[in-house]
Amino acid sequence: LMVWPGNRQPVSFRGILVVYNISLTLLSLYMFYELVTGLWEGGHNFFCQDTHSGGDADMKIIRVLWWYYFSKLIEFMDTFFFILRKNSHQITVLYVYHHASLLNIWWFIMNWVPCGHSYFGATFNSFIHVLMYSYYGLSKRLPEPFIPGEQCEAAKTKNGLRRPNPHLRAPDAAISDLQRSVMCEPAS
């Protein structure tokens, strides 16, 4: 599958990825909230919970677990974004195994045992995905971090409009952030 993109340039999905990551953050937050409130309402025992012993709360948990199962299908889109953006280093054996096995495991759970302690993995994973997809969404939305030395050097070499201030030269270890911010002065 990694051969398919060939010699083409990576595709930028910045806007789509922001919407995608925010949507998965909100879906994961919804699932986490509903699972936690369902557990609370049903009085679940964290050590030994019978199947279908929580009444209406079990039905709430089962409905959310179907959304969780569906979210595993949506998360396969991560792989396609990696491929189209030519980020093949992010597709590891563990990544492929994790996504392929989760879909099969949750199909089994949802068809035969969609209650009892089946909530635990989904609750934990939903919480982690809130953190993960919100980080991914913010990293696609925010500008690149400002690194003064790099901007100065890039500007100097790119268009010659700026040159380093020779009076502020110091070893890199001794340069403070304030000094870095004033190391470039407009060329005269």
Automatic annotation (TrEMBL):
One of its GO terms (biological process) is fatty acid elongation, saturated fatty acid. PANTHER family: ELONGATION OF VERY LONG CHAIN FATTY ACIDS PROTEIN 5, FATTY ACID ACYL TRANSFERASE-RELATED. The keyword Protein transport does not apply. One of its GO terms (molecular function) is fatty acid elongase activity. It is a multi-pass membrane protein. Its main location: membrane. One of its GO terms (cellular component) is endoplasmic reticulum membrane. It is an enzyme of class 2 (transferase). InterPro entries: ELO_fam (IPR002076). Its EC number is 2.3.1.199. Belongs to the ELO family. It catalyses: a very-long-chain acyl-CoA + malonyl-CoA + H(+) = a very-long-chain 3-oxoacyl-CoA + CO2 + CoA. This is Elongation of very long chain fatty acids protein.
